[in-house]
Write a structure and sequence with these properties.
single chain, 581 residues, mainly alpha, Sodium/glucose cotransporter, two-stranded parallel sheet, 4 strands, 3% strand, disordered C terminus
Length: 581
Amino acid sequence: MLTLCSFLLFTGLVAVVAWWKTHDDRKDTAIGYFLAGRSLAWPVIGGSLLLTNLSTEQLVGINGGGYQHGMLLMTWEVWSSLSIVAMALFFLPRYLRSGITTIPEFLEIRFDRSVRLFTSCVSVVLIAFILLPFILFSGAEFMIPVFNVPEYLGDNTAFNLVVVSGLLAVVGGCYAIIGGLKAVAISDTVNGIGLALGGLLIPVFGLSFVGGGDVLQGLSTLIEQHPERMAPMGDSDANIPWQALFTGVTLLTTFYWCTNQGIVQRTFAAKNLAQGQKGTLFAAVMKLLGPVYLVLPGIIAWHIVSSGSYDIPAHVAMPADANGSYGFLVKLVLPSWAVGFFAATIFGAILSSFNSFLNSASTLFGVDIYKGLLNRGATDGQAVRAGRIFAVVTIPLSVSLVLFFKFYSSTNEGLFGQLIDFASVTNIPLIAIVVVALVSKRTPAIGVNVALAAGMAFQFFFGILNGGSLGLTIDEEFYGVRMHGLHLAGVNFAMLMLIMFIFRLLMPLEKPFEQEYSGDVDVTPWKLAGPVGLGVTLVVVIMYIGMWSQFGLVPGKRVAAEYQEIHPSSAFDSAATEPDE
């Protein structure tokens, strides 16, 4: 009862604050509904960026990766800081200069309307069919054991998943559909405060548990007994080989932080460029702390489970696989009152990601597809209404796809690896064409459309159907090259750049593109943006060099073998762990 009360108290507080800050705002115009009236200051931008990113696919998925593979999963946090710096210094000034609402709108300005419609449709499919169901699935996977849902609804796993994910979708949809982007951003900021406090409690209590009440002793125990799991990079057999930092990792993090509509939309709502850069760079600095609460808890859970020398209370179930490691640690180390509070912050993080991406999907549909294709004479009010209707329809679709993700995760490489697999199909082609839009002045639209279609087909066939293998199997004999999925993403990107370069040579635009200033946003940069960005970059380099010099590389095959000893029946991450076999 105490757990439930603390959960409801914090959840209600967030809803009240979001309503109070937005109930008088205009939501009948595209700028007011989709871009919060371009009124966001840097703390809200930074907080919303972090909370939209930080949800259960991060807390459960990356900590699950830490449980299985160790500290090398910090890559998705620390390395992302470099992409966020690029967003602040290179991408955002160009976006705001055009006064855009969506990334496809920017692509129309650079290329033509066909590119805008193509990329809008691709982005909507990515959000509706992959990101939203995945957020609901990972959220339900966390909430079900924390609140002992089977005790109330029975042991039907599919039924419990649908009920819990449905509740998450309905509540999250209310923020996005009724309140618009500002309600989303405000709720993100409030939830961010709670999640920062709650998230840091887990590793602190976990280390204290390991160290018999001494946090530093707990950390020393981990370092002494599992030095291979503290390494920041992996060898060629690891889940993330060190070479992938310069191929798929960089491409995927750059797409996510620089061109993903669900993330960048709140930066388009900045009061001016300086506020946008401050908020974005604030997020870059905070991502440097990500390993503390997004990887370390997984390593702590691994130590507790693998050692077999700790007394585990009867009410705390041992994790069945890596996906269950974070929930296991939460229930093990937090007192009952804190579990409710922390569950509320996780609930908020789930809602944050869900409502942010749902709002972005409705933006893309209302502005780009409905007003740009279906009803070109539509008013702002009609576009907003169309976006809201699309969001309402998307909610049950997302819930229904949760069962597919449940099935897929049981036969493939687990939560976070699964998301990377599916998202790469659209992410790699989209980042390729945005880069070309920014650096090339004569590449024609037809080359971009061809590259987008070719890139998705390539990544889906070789990345999903062919398991990351660049080749074909004929009569049970494989002809080609087996490679890690992240390297395959790099090959795809290079192929797409070549395709667009060929079109640039054969069919160049007669007149080079010149970007015009729309005058919608003050684009005077923050004078400290460059120094702060350089500082973040130096910290990333120092972290990697320092940790690598002390711990070396993660031995992929050894770590995978250790995991299989503890969870022999689990197929989690087997494909990504040993990409060459």
